[in-house]
Specification:
With 138 residues, this protein is an alpha+beta fold. The protein has one domain (22-136). The chain is 20% helix and 46% strand. It has two helices and nine strands, in the order αββββαβββββ. It has helices at residues 3-18, 61-72, and strands spanning 23-26, 32-37, 44-49, 52-56, 80-83, 87-95, 98-109, 115-124, 129-136. Strands 5, 6, 7, 8 and 9 form a five-stranded antiparallel sheet that branches. A hairpin with a 4-residue loop joins strand 8 and strand 9. The longest helix is centred in the first third of the chain and has 16 residues, at 3-18. The radius of gyration is 19 Å and the shape is globular.
């Protein structure tokens, strides 16, 4: 094959990999959208309701996950260390006002190498995490 034909093929293939489209989950009443962008180093999970955008699982990782992690791993709350930003697994709207998000992450407990866990979170349209269920991954 001629080299000048290979270069355009490689450029088109590379641009398709770089410009990945975000995954969108539209609510049943079509007033909100859960947008998951997996193109970067970490997954960005946003809940868009009208003009407001709520970034989920960013600043409030400790307050959201630490009590549940301590209970799931049978550790004291002060032994639960750094939580790795979560990786998105799946999502579904359970009602027009609530979305269920599943994901995976890991946490350092008792200064070890890290313990993996999966979680299921119920999030309201306003971006409030109502309930989180944490399950250790073995």
């Amino acid at each position: 094959m001629k080299p000048f034909l290979i270069l355009p093929f490689l450029l088109v293939t590379a641009s398709g990999l770089i410009a990945a489209e975000p995954i969108k989950f539209v609510s049943p009443d079509q007033s909100s959208v859960l947008v998951v962008d997996k193109s970067g180093r970490r997954d960005l999970i946003e809940l868009r309701s009208g003009k407001t955008v709520h970034r989920l699982f960013e600043e409030n990782l400790d307050s959201t996950f630490k009590p549940k992690l301590a209970k799931a791993f049978d550790a004291s709350l002060n032994k639960v260390g750094r939580i790795v930003p979560p990786t998105f697994t799946s999502a579904r709207w359970v009602s027009p006002d609530e979305v269920e998000i599943k994901g995976r992450s890991s946490v350092i407990i008792n200064n070890d190498n890290g313990d993996a866990f999966s979680f299921t979170a119920s999030v309201t349209k306003s971006g409030t995490v109502r309930d989180v269920t944490v399950t250790p991954v073995k």
